[in-house]
Design brief:
7 helices, about 0% strand, mainly alpha, single chain
Length: about 200
């Protein structure tokens, strides 16, 4: 019968790989990864007639939710694997899976962005110039002008798209609060003050 001798350096560096993955994941910083600088948003919004910031915000928020969901799902798997927290651990894990980017809202926001620029695109098709584009947007002055419909569609479409993105964030805040409640249940059962 052979005996295996373990030297101090022969053990795995991480005796609990899942715990290590959770700690590494939770240790990754969100800072400045999914946000827009105010100056960049203002300048790019002005140059792109309001299009680029909403496009970037929707994309960044999608990545943010994916990143956050990954972190919390790892934590939920670890709670369940430890066997602590009883049914509360499973409830927390299940709740983390509900974090999502609401696809229907994003789809409608995309439609609103398209609707904002479609009348202008049809009007300028075949005879585009920056001056004519400005006439229908920033340079619009008269409510009875022939460009009133294009100007209204541009403003209304973008306003609704930005409002839908705001709603997307508010819904995520609500979902995140529910995840936090589920975590607090686990923490209480583990004897941790979650207040």
């Amino acid at each position: 019968m052979s005996h295996t001798t373990h030297t101090p350096g022969s053990f795995d560096a991480d005796p609990d790989p899942l715990a290590g993955a959770v700690l590494r994941s939770l240790g990754r910083s969100f800072k400045d990864r999914f946000s827009l600088a105010a100056g960049w948003a203002a300048i790019s919004g002005w140059l792109s007639f309001g299009l680029l910031p909403i496009w970037r915000l929707m994309g960044h928020f999608d990545h943010y939710v994916t990143f956050e969901k990954q972190q919390l799902t790892y934590a939920g798997e670890w709670f369940e694997a430890r066997g602590g927290g009883g049914g509360a651990a499973s409830a927390f894990h299940d709740r983390t899976r509900l974090l999502r980017y609401y696809g229907a809202l994003r789809f409608v926001a995309f439609l609103c962005v398209i609707a904002a620029f479609t009348p202008i695109a049809f009007d300028l098709f075949g005879d585009f110039s920056v001056g004519r584009l400005i006439e229908r947007t920033y340079g619009f002055r008269e409510s009875g002008s022939q460009f009133a419909f294009e100007f209204t569609a541009w403003n209304l479409g973008l306003a609704i798209a930005y409002a839908l993105h705001w709603l997307q964030i508010r819904l995520h805040v609500r979902d995140s609060a529910r995840v936090a409640e589920a975590y607090n249940d686990v923490a209480r059962l583990e004897g941790v003050d979650a207040s």
